[in-house]
Model the fold of this input.
Amino acid sequence: DAKTTQPPSMDCAEGRAANLPCNHSTISGNEYVYWYRQIHSQGPQYIIHGLKNNETNEMASLIITEDRKSSTLILPHATLRDTAVYYCIVRVAGGNQGGKLIFGQGTELSVKP
Amino acid sequence: GAVVSQHPSWVICKSGTSVKIECRSLDFQATTMFWYRQFPKQSLMLMATSNEGSKATYEQGVEKDKFLINHASLTLSTLTVTSAHPEDSSFYICSARDERGAWAEAFFGQGTRLTVV
Done:
């Protein structure tokens, strides 16, 4: 079973920041938080991942709480092309389990003009 | 970057026939690939882990005789849906693990839409 909880859907106005929450209260010390998104009828796309520090890349920022039981993915200036299902996944990075992803239900983000 | 390609993108087949889906890592070698299935309005479900040169590891509840996986080279894994029936109609997605980096991340193909009529 997936070890994360996300709201099923969210709306965001174009140009505004989209903040997608994820709860992972049972996360282990060696598990990372990963975010992927899936645009309709395409394969998932990697967005970002982190262990305990906040992370930022060209796509998004990841804020992880100090107790690591929850995180927030931030799309700073959402566009219509960011409309997708966003998946938060926790797992051990690298090694024999690297790449093996167990998907939860995700959050369907709708960016509206 | 790491590119993974699936073929075909979509396929329609008659009930009772078999369908083969290919997953290729185009710019890296992948000893491990993963196969997922996704029904409409649902999340991706991991079906199996494909290992080059050895038998695939299937997730609980996935019929290995129904979904044949062959990983004969470092850049190609195939999924064959045998004796397909309408309930096998789904979106099948593969990913390939790129071990060049420390994270050994998986990159996804674009998916294959299978419709069994």
In short: The CA atoms of residues 34 and 115 of chain B lie 21 Å apart.
